[in-house]
Fold each of these.
Amino acid sequence: MKIFVLGAGVQGTVFAVRLTKAGHQVTLVASPGRMEDLRVSGARIQNELTSVAATLALPVVPSLPSDRSADLCLVTVRREQIELVLPCLAQATGIGRFVFLVNHANGSEDLFRVLGKRRVVVAFPGVAGSLENGIVRFIEIPQQPTAIESDAYDVAAILREAGLRVSRVNDMDAWLCRHAVFITAIAGALYETDCDPHRLAQDRAAVRRFVRGVQEGWRALDRRHTAPAPFALRAILCWVPLNISVGYWSKLLETRGELYFARHAPFEMAALASDVRVLAGEREAPVLHELLAAIDRYKNAQNNGQ
């Protein structure tokens, strides 16, 4: 298949390399600085848990061509960039479908309106990591395979054939809303501890606030009749005794926090926090809103160079 990957950060590079190794014709769309690095050194990825590395020379272009055809375009931009890239996607009429691997919780109606519902596949990557000195250092999150809407069985098969774990989901917009509450709550807790997962892990009161924040947000979603979160996540966050949940997350933050959570971009988290505020009001989710405020403070500090 011919595939474009829009965005050459962690997810875009990992998916591009995996799909190329599976035999697909993949072209990366990258920013000027990243494009130069890719052309000189290739697309370089390394699994942080297994140390398995790969380097591939991939075609790379500065923008999505409007005059070229392709079967798929994987969209791996950040939440705050979705509105910026939509006009470019709309002009790419030769692309069959767009697979949005993006952290958004404001629904997919705008995507459907601009591109047509049949051309949009909503998904979320099960990959986390960072781009360091041109090398994508990543992990595949065992507890969270790449999620994709259940009707896109052919796209799910393509990703599985590329070696990616995939979970098909009946209601991806609901899944993304639940995930947004979870990830902004934990991001806020991390930002309150200077993005230090080890420090957060040792502060059980702070971990308890994160769990409470998720519970508040999810109860607000329950009242909106939003489909529930995955079973295992509901169990450890909502059903087990609070001290067991706190212990679980403290241990995970201590052992895997740097890989799983600490590298979220503050500007993306701030955009996602705005989505979450619409889903859960301050009166019904006061602890969650405190954590969302921590995201804004951290973003503003980063913006001011502090």
Note: The chain has two domains: 2-170, 174-303.
Amino acid sequence: MRLSPHFDLSEFTRSDTARLLKIDNVPNLQEIENLTNLCIHVLEPARQKTNAQIYVTSGFRSPALNNAVGGVPSSQHCKGLAADLRVYTQFYTDNLVSALKETDFDQLIFEKSGARKWIHVSWSPNPRHQIINQWNDDTRTNKTSSRQRASRRAIR
């Protein structure tokens, strides 16, 4: 099922853990709608801007799968609102981050486990434009987005 021109539902539901543990990882209609909005409002605009493939390493997670991979119970992945993205070279990552910051993202989290790094991005109808950096080795990822700055000015 196509969610947007460059993203398919299967990219968000594939999981080696679910396959190995025989966990059903099929989203309901609301979760599919949320995934579609994530694609339309965040991932597709970033894909168009970078003109580069975006690889989803973790998308939708059923509660059982989320528990199996050690996710927090309140994870946006369980609602179809988030995706983890593979990062490649620094050039690719910088371009992807720049493009994502110009979208209606809710959270942009630079996560890592050991030497592995990835980008967690989420969408919400009321985006916070929150950026959290757990990498701590690349200050470019800490810059606030232009949308975040505009939102702060409007509050003052």
Note: The radius of gyration is 15 Å.
Amino acid sequence: MGLDVLEAGHYDAAASHLTAAHVDLVCIDVGLPNKSGYELCEHIRGSLRLAELPILMTSEHGNSGDMAQAENAGGNAFLHKPFSMRQLAQCIESLFAVTPRIPLSFELQLRASRALVIPVPIGAWSSPSRVPSSNAAVNA
């Protein structure tokens, strides 16, 4: 496939790679030591810079509970171990084929929209009844 791979044996090393390097896809084993792969997935989804990053979750258990938890954490795909290189390549290709990769969650969109609030002069509103209160932007 011609991919460069960065390896991380635990949560902190993975989080460090994500901060320092440009990454196009993350493959996470749910059984990471010290913090779970689910927690790393949630960390990625909570970051505005990384939120749209495709995430492939893997587990040797592969039961429906693991799959549901991976999806709830924000994973885009799930592979049961052991898997072949062909299965891995097909999964990666399908993740790269999705456009846009994944939409930002509503919570992330809301956080981003609050960060980009631009004050509007009161004269720009058509009538006094449409002027928002000072708390309207905070409560929206």
Note: The chain has one domain: 11-117+131-139.
Amino acid sequence: MKTLRDLSQEEINSFLERCKEKMPEDWNLTIADLYEEMKAGKRKTVGQPEIDWAREYERRQLPADTRFPEKGDVYESLKDQTVDYLTAWAAPCTGGGKGTLLKGELVWVDGEHPKDEKPIGIYALPVEYAKLEERMVPKSEIESPKYGGFYFYLRTADLNVNFKLVRTGFNQTRAKRK
């Protein structure tokens, strides 16, 4: 993979010009679609400005009354549902998997979205962190000295359909593992 130092001035100028481009009127790809195209060999990379276009396209698909998540929001799962989780590591990688969030379990938005006042998705933590971590994350990962915790990525569309906002302004620090 090339770094900025590896690029010629022509390549840098081309990249900057693409970033200025407006989204084509017929654009209809999501971020997931872009990555699927890359997996299928239709594109070599996923980058700018296509990521921004995909994000804007996804935002336009949301109903007008969509509530966008904010730091401190607490959401209750309205049903048992499979969710993706990510694991953080003291290494240059991110892991993850799938787990079941049970009806009634709570997640909270622990960060802000400085670049995006209307995010299409957010990172969230379970309110009962230790309980869900034990249930979802393999013990071998939790016990690794490089393991740094887990969190969810939840789409705004899913939060508005499969969850209920139950509280705002919540703040909780995660308990340290022993």
Note: The chain has two domains: 8-61, 74-167.
